[in-house]
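ok so i was messing around last nite and threw this chain in just to see what happens. nothing serious, just curious
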Amino acid sequence: MGDCESIIPTSEGEQHVIAAFQHLAKLLRTSQNVNDELKRLLTDLDSHLTSMTLYTHLEDGKLNELESRFKSAEEKIRRWESNESMIWDSGPKEACEYMKAVDEIHKVQEGLISLPVNDGRKQKDLLCQAESVIQFAMARLEQELVHILAQHKLYFEPNCVPFQSGGYDVVYNESFASVEDSLEEETSQRESIPAVCIVNMVHPHVIPHLKSIANAMFTSNYIQEFSLAFVRMRKDALDEYLLILEMERHSIGDLQTMEWDVLNVKIKKWIWLIKVVIRVYLASEQRLCNNIFEGFGSYSATCFAEISATSMLCLLNFGEAIAMTTRRPEKLFRLLDMYEVLENLLGDIGALFSEDTEMGSFLKAEFHNLFMKLSDSARATFVDFGSLIARSISTSPFPGGGVHHLTKYVMNYIRTLTVYRDSLVFLLRDEAADGLGPASELLNEINSMPCPLAFHLQSITSQLISNLNNKSKLYNDDALRHIFLMNNIHYMVQKVKGSELRAFFGGEWIREHNRMLQIHANIYMRVTWQSVISLLKLDGDGTNTPKAVFKEKYRAFNVAFEEIYKNQTGWNVSDPELRDDLHILTSNCVIQAYRFLCNLKSQFNCEKYIKYTIDDLSKHILDLFQGSPRSLQSSRRR
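result:
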């Protein structure tokens, strides 16, 4: 009799037919002409038809009950149709009743669908009306969602990472003044990347409201509408946050033509922004999405990626534009800062964006692409630095033979680069380092391998010395030429000895350049004083020297010394240690010869020809290399 289950009555006319069948079955069962088997079948048919009639009455009661429940829930929902106030603003009771009414409509729909009277007009009408009410309720819940997100978003200042526009910069120009300050401030600024800092993006008390709306719309198969509205509102909110953070949008053309001072600050601002956006704003936004879309599969990751896309692409586009701008040496520090901050954020990006979502996978790939472009740009900028130094040309000698601004620039530049030693060692790992000498001995001992960074730094200083040799040829005075080279080589050695550069140059480099320094000092002494000292020499013990010769030697020495004094007091040896060494070297050479001549003055009765005493001469030698030209005044008349 299972086939009978497919003929359940659905109208009053069908019920009359069932009654007629039941009457006919009873008549046939009482007939004498019906055998026992047919009587048994007729009895079963009568029993089944009776059950069908009873079932029909029960379903009619269930349908009526569902209709009553629907009308009650519909009334609670429809009364908000003309009400312009917001449900959740009216209080928790109103919101609770509305959500219960929506839930009741869902249950009525389930009840109607479960009824087997699938062809009943009343059932179809109720299902159609329930769907209409659900559509209205979902539209209303979407409005409530937008209102709650707009009214309860939170603003905050990212105090965990304050922006600092300052820092240590080494910029080359003809009036360059060396910055000799410590790099501690710059180092601390570079390392001030915070851990993830989660904040509330909307007021915590509305999170349950948003989740209840999400659940209701998900249950009604309106999760797509919920997601679109949620993404739109949160994307707008994130754009507002970025306006507060003063994140600007620039074209590549704008950045290419921007003055370095302006661009430098913008890059520093970008470094600060990307840390704050990723570790504060996006990390917090991800938590909000996870809270709201909990239990909805991949919707959380998808919506979060869509919300983040605009701000992330804006940041990435700026970074890509910087990587594409013209390479210049001072930009290297900012490129390395950008490279390092992206390196530190690689793990954060992996945690924020899922490979399972199209947008998340795209953003993650774009982040890695920028990371590679910055590494390529930084590497190329560093490698090009040496050739830039070689191309630096001067047309006039550097005043006073002092430390050239190019020397200060190069040494402070590479000294600053030691702050980025780990990044540069990694970036240059594939660079050839053929001919790497013992100057990198310290790093070789640590890493048991040649260090390309040490090789490049040594190459830069070699190109600098070659350039300085060319610049020294601009001096007409050979002595000043060697003072100039001494000043600059001494400056280089001191910078290496007094900083982490020593780890890349090693003791042998220092010893080699100290020997170079001594060679120039010896040449200076020979060029400057050899002819002067020769004026003081006498034949034998000097006792047979004519008085006129003795007198002429004094006179010639005085003239020569006064000329040297006049010139070399204007020469500049700014380093006290080097200046003292030159004073001692000069005194040991000149005073000894001068003392010998002075010891003979009484034999020739020539005191009146002695213009300078030994003490005078010693003091005058101390005036040399002070950078302020002077003229000697006679201490006594002839």
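not much to say yet. The chain has four domains: 2-143, 152-390, 399-527, 535-622.
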